[in-house]
Amino acid sequence: MSTVGYRDFGAFLREHFTGKVQKISINAGFTCPNRDGKLGTGGCTYCNNQTFNPEYCNPGKSVTEQLAEGRRFFARKYPEMKYLAYFQAYTNTYGEMSGLRRLYEEALATPDVVGLIIGTRPDCVSGELLDYLAWLRGRGIFVLVEYGVETSRNDTLQLVNRGHTWEQSADAIVRTAVRGIMTGAHIIAGLPGEGAADVVQTARQLSQLPLSTVKLHQLQIIRGTRLARQVAAGEVAVVQWSVGEYISVCLDFIRNLSPSIAIERFTSQSPDGLLISPRWGLKNYQFTNLLQQAIARERVVQGEALAT
Ligand code: SF4
Q: Which of 129, 134, 199, 247 is the most buried (most CB within 10 A)?
């Protein structure tokens, strides 16, 4: 792409679907191997899973009920809408194969659900699971596995207790993509000890991988997390970007990311009562407007810095 801007998620979806498509988040009651002792305990230092889901998404309800509620919400305005079941909370491949199949197939049996997006950790996908997802893809079903990669720096991953390495992320993405399954990466900007140059480095490393999509968001310090306690005690250093500074980080991320990878978002907004910082006081759409203005002003082109 040589035009100003970046390839957004809407453009990516239009390459796969002719009409409108909306994600519906599901909390299917999974846990996380980095919390329950299988891989670690205590979880990632910044994690508070209460921030993951909208209100309709409650693990006390079945996958069918959650999708039906999400669908009712959106179908009022767009009756023709199709849906992607987004298995979002915790680690959505953490379970026995038979149970995973049952949940995914329950989602796919819901009217107007045309595909799956499955959020997980890179160390939690078996070959058997990937073969099954490849089989779904072979039947024309949209399947995207979204990996929590977070950063390309292994010392940071260790500091935040992720419990996996960058190499494991790269390996999982390749093992998924070679089977014809779409892959996504979730990245956090401003993890403890990291600055703008680290975000650029991660974008450049991601550009080497067979990724379909990436999500970037600013590190948020959430009440009740280990990170909040570490920052308060001065045990870890976290950059405090202003909105303008974070927009510069996003511009450099775009410049250093391969144009073959769609960018789904740049910010995340945790519930106000849980958020300690940053408190920019902007809605996601207001941030996006500021970012779009900066992209136009600086004539930013996705991937333009990769040749250098
Ligand atoms: S961020 Fe994800 S991997 Fe880390 S503890 Fe929370 S649910 Fe588990």
A: 199
| Separation of CA 191 and ligand 1 centre (Å) | 14
* Structural domain contains residue 82: yes
Pairing outcome for strands 275-277 and 221-222: antiparallel
Tell whether ligand 1 has an atom less than 6 A from the beta carbon of residue 278. no
Neighbours of 281 (CB within 10 A): 8
Domain assignment of residue 60, given as a range? 9-307
Chain mean pLDDT for the chain = 94
The residue ranges of DSSP E strands in 6-98, in sequence order, are 21-26, 82-87
Q: For 96-141, what is each residue's pLDDT tens digit?
A: 999 999 999 999 999 999 999 999 999 999 999 999 999 999 999 9
Find out whether the beta carbon of 164 lies less than 6 Å from any atom of ligand 1: no
Please give the distance, rounded to the nearest whole angstrom, from the Cα atom of residue 236 to the centre of ligand 1.
19
Distance of alpha carbon 82 from alpha carbon 75, whole angstroms: 9
In this prediction, residue 296 carries a pLDDT of 97
How many angstroms is it from 151 CA to the middle of ligand 1?
14
CATH number of residue 138's parent domain: 3.20.20.70
94 alpha carbon – ligand 1 mean position (Å):
12
Based on the structure, what is the number of domains in the chain? 1
44 Cβ closer than 6 Å to some ligand 1 atom: yes
pLDDT value for 57: 54
Task: Note whether residue 297 is domain-resident.
Answer: yes
Taking the C-alpha atoms of residue 119 and residue 186, their distance in angstroms, rounded to an integer, is 9
Cα–Cα distance for residue pair 298/4, rounded to 1 Å: 9
Element (H, E) at 120: strand 113-120
**Does ligand 1 have an atom closer than 6 angstroms to the CB of 35?**
yes
| 192 pocket-lining for ligand 1 (C-beta < 6 Å) | no
